[in-house]
Structure formats: structure tokens, C-alpha cells
Known about the structure:
It is a single chain. The protein is an alpha+beta fold. Helices cover about 15% and strands about 35% of the residues. The protein has one helix at about 1-30, and strands at about 30-40, 40-50, 55, 60-65, 75-80, 105-110, 120, 130-135, 150-155, 170, 175. The strands form 3 sheets. The chain has a 5-stranded mixed β-sheet with strand order 7-6-5-9-10, with no helix packed on it. The chain has a 4-stranded antiparallel β-sheet with strand order 1-2-4-8. Strands 3-11 form a two-stranded parallel sheet. Strand 1 (about 30-40) and strand 2 form a beta hairpin. The radius of gyration is 19 Å and the shape is globular.
Amino acid sequence: MRAVRTSARAVLAVTAATALTLGLAGSAAAATATRTVTDGATTYNLSVTAPDSAAAAGQVITVTGTGFNPAQGIYVGLCVVEGAPGAAKPTPCLGGQDESGSTGASHWVNNTFGGLFANSSKFTAGGAFSAQIYVKATLDDGSVCGEDVTCAVVTRADHLDSGDRKYDVHVPISFQ
């Protein structure tokens, strides 16, 4: 009986320590980027949160955002960035234009077509979204984030207005 209690206590202690470690790692390992833009007569306070580091070999991460214009679709993905958000189109992006949804490297948020295609969804209240994307350090062209190029988890206007830089938000990410 005593051995069973000791085993149960050991399992409980390991489980509690693991949960505590994971909880601390999860809460400490996120970065948020913000940007305020004016589109017409409306001001949007954009906010995007993503992990600040990921496995170099690749992993799925969750990206959330709020304050976006639901009338302007966006892509969420890992891209090469140069300069401040809005200075230059974030490109190239991991997975390119993944229309089939096979790589999971990008997500399309659009209130007209969201949810009708792989890796797409609609904005929720307040111009919010939550998306899962696949990220890795080496891009399709062979360049490596953090070594050859600077990469970030980004939002950018979708293909219906691809020249619009107002909705670009960059969340820096590093790879381990």
C-alpha cells in the first residue's frame, strides 16, 4: 500500500512539474507587435501575437490578431522582412502561395471567402483572428532565417489588394 502511495505521489509530482514548466514556457515565449493605421476615415489598432522562437526543423504555431479591418483580407505567414512594417512587401514567404493548403505555411483570413478553402477563416468580432501556421528556419529558396535573411511572422494584405502595405504587421521570430 505504501509503495502505491509513493508511486502515485511521484507521478503527481512529475505531472505538476511538467505542467508548471510548460505553462511558464508558454507564457514567456510569446511576442506581440502592434501598429496603428488609418484607412479612409477609420483608425485601426492592429495587434498580432506569435511565439518568439520555434524549432528550426519546423513546427506548427498559433498566431492571433485583433483590430483588423474585416473588409480587407489578410495572409498570415512566415516571411522575409526588410525595414519597418509597411515599408516593403514581406516576401518571399515560406510555402509561397499555398492555394491547395498542403504546406500549412500560410493562412488566409477573409470575410467573403474565409472557411471555404484550406487554411482559411473569417475574422471574428473586433477584426480578430486565430490561425495555425507551419514555420521552419529554411525557406523554399534555401535562405535561412536569422542567418541569410531576417524573418518574421507577418500579416499582409491578401491577393485582392496585394499592393496595400497598411495591414502589414511583423512579429520577430527566432529559430532554435
